[in-house]
Specification:
Mean pLDDT: 88
Structural class: alpha+beta
Distance between the termini: 71 Å
Oligomer: single chain
Order of helices and strands: HHHEEHE
Low-confidence stretches: none
Helix content: 55-70%
Largest sheet: 3 strands, mixed
Strand content: 5-15%
Length: 154
């Protein structure tokens, strides 16, 4: 029984080797063709360079993302160390809108108004987004109080 299994494995290995050799031969014929081989090699070379450029762009994009996230974390840590500061109303509104953009599904449906550190939220949102918007506004540095006037839709 073992002898039959061993013969079967040898036959399978021989078949795989023949397929690999046939594939290699076909590839060589494709690239070394005297009429179209040069154009095909150029096309493959161009594709390789294009993929390398795309890879470098992706790496640059990821590095920029990490840099921006690090700056954001440092800014939040700095804000925690300085405690509650007086923030101009336009800047406070922008901060709250930024937080809403990260925590609410439809941030454009929430209108933010700031008056001397007191934030007023208005607009129509889902009940889930209403709670998230209020929480996000409360956690924004510089906010003294939040008045939630959001209308809940179903």
């Amino acid at each position: 029984m073992e002898e039959k299994t061993c013969q079967w494995k040898k036959a399978a290995c021989l078949g795989a080797g023949l397929c690999a050799a046939a594939g290699l031969g076909a590839g060589l014929m494709y690239f070394l063709d005297p009429h179209r081989g040069r154009a095909r090699r150029g096309m493959v070379r161009d594709k390789c360079f294009s993929l390398a450029r795309q890879g470098l762009k992706e790496v640059d994009h990821r590095l920029a993302d990490v840099e921006h996230r690090t700056k954001g974390i440092l800014a939040e840590a700095k804000a925690m160390l300085h405690g509650n500061e007086d923030v101009p109303d336009p800047k406070l509104e922008a901060r709250v809108r930024t937080k809403l953009g990260r925590s609410v599904e439809h941030p454009h449906s929430v209108h933010v108004t700031a008056l001397e550190g007191n934030v007023i939220l208005t607009g129509e949102v889902s009940p889930r987004d209403a709670k998230r918007a209020e929480t996000a506004a409360r956690l924004t540095p510089g906010v003294k109080s939040v008045e939630n006037l959001l209308e809940r839709t179903t």
